[in-house]
Amino acid sequence: MNRSDIGIIGLAVMGENLVLNMASKGFAVSVYNRSADKVKKFIEGRGKGQNITGTYSLEEFTGSLEKPRKVMMLVKAGKAVDDLIEQLLPLLDPDDIIIDGGNSHYTDTMRRAKYIEENKLLYIGTGVSGGEEGALTGPSIMPGGSPGAWPHVKNLFSSIAAKTKDGSICTGWLGSNGAGHFVKMVHNGIEYGDMQIISEAYYLMKNLLFMSHDEMHNVFTEWNEGELNSYLIKITADIMSFKDKDGSVLLEKILDKAGQKGTGKWTGITAHELGIPLTLIDEAVFARYLSVHKELRLKVSVVIKGPEARSPADISRFLKDLRDAVYAAKIISYTQGFDLMKEASRQYGWDLNYGDIAMLWREGCVIRSVFLDRIKEAYDKNMKPDNLLLDDFFREETEKTQEGWRRVVATAIVNGIPLPALSSALSYFDGIRSSVLPANLIQAQRDYFGAHNYERVDSPGGQFFHTNWSGRGGDTTSTSYNA
Fold first, then answer.
1. Does residue 133 have an active-site annotation?
2. Which pLDDT value is given to residue 1?
3. Which candidate in 16, 191, 227, 363 is catalytic?
4. In 3-state terms, what secondary structure has residue 105?
5. Strand 29-32 and strand 6-9: pairing?
6. Which candidate in 184, 265, 330, 342 is catalytic?
7. DSSP 176-229
8. 1, 87, 91, 234: which could join 62 in a potential S-S bond, CB 3.0 to 4.6 Å?
9. 367-380 pLDDT, tens digit each
10. Can you say whether the dihedral through the CA atoms of 182, 184, 190, 195 is positive or negative?
11. Catalytic: 191?
12. 99 pairs with which residues across the strands?
């Protein structure tokens, strides 16, 4: 019996297209889905005539695979993954490999990797980005987990992954346990930020500049030819010109309630846990939450009115400023995301290679853009810069664009137009370049009401003081100082 090189469980959009991608690269693939009808439909439809074996039980599925077996799960994150692992374990042998290709939380992947390894098997948690098209033609693949598993899947992953124009492959081993899913989580967080930044640019074009959709299409198309060249800018241009069946613009018929699957929220929560100021991505997540409260927004809009929007006198100048603002905010989004990965790498011992990560995202994934080449260059020059804004290129670009960026944010505020991502990015930029912040007052307040101590600028770091501010307190202090 000829056995398959890999097995895929889950025939939703990503599963089907990854199977077809693997088969097109010469790999034999077995497939299984909880619903037998999906297997039959796929084998007799899109998978017909290819080296794909349909199976109708997990026993048949695992029995059809070459050893060491490679089983890739593409199922909903959470309990479904744990349940499936429990069903697979009795059917697998030592050194077989279980791969989670879904959007699992990295802490779940860390837990599962330890559990699987204790059962003498190997585990990979891998991010897969690129959507339906990427899965079929070449996604960005971000694997981590049991190091011993990588040699067994390296050729397969490298064959199906996206390639850059210079032939670089958009996959590579990231580190142990949850490293792959952590990097994918940050990727998704940056994706949230990019989408919010672009949506704010659209909102300004529509509600402040009163541009037509054809005009907006032309602007986004032009932006895609310069430093903002990216997948998300490109598809935004396409969306602006897409017509519904009646000839009207489809975009304006879509309800303004943005959904999410939770990865942006996870990125923000993780930033809070690790103490990284991920302000832009947090605001992008909160903007989606706010959008969902459509009924409440409708009620408030009736009783509270803001200023009437007045279009700037020089539209072309404002559009240049807007491009600068989008570009600068994008730099901030990546700066914060890479800072988060740096701190996680330090805490979890992953030794992430940030230049390589930038290249993993260069093609195939949703946040692919020419911008990533500059990030790789920054980390190639200095493997661990404290912050991307300390790199000469990014420092010069933000300095060059900040005047236009400020004008855009100021104009929006005066005209009552919300810009949570663009404005929070600017606040971060101004905060990170400030040698002194008003946190001394906050610490004084904490010491006043809670005896939380403070450090002094005229004393060595690590030496703590407490003041009896009111004259009614004692000498007992709290031990909760945390700077």
1. no
2. 67
3. 191
4. coil
5. parallel
6. 184
7. BTTHHHHHHHHHHHHHHHHHHHHHHHHHHHHHTS---HHHHHHHHHHHTTTTT-
8. 91
9. 888 889 999 999 98
10. negative
11. yes
12. 72, 124
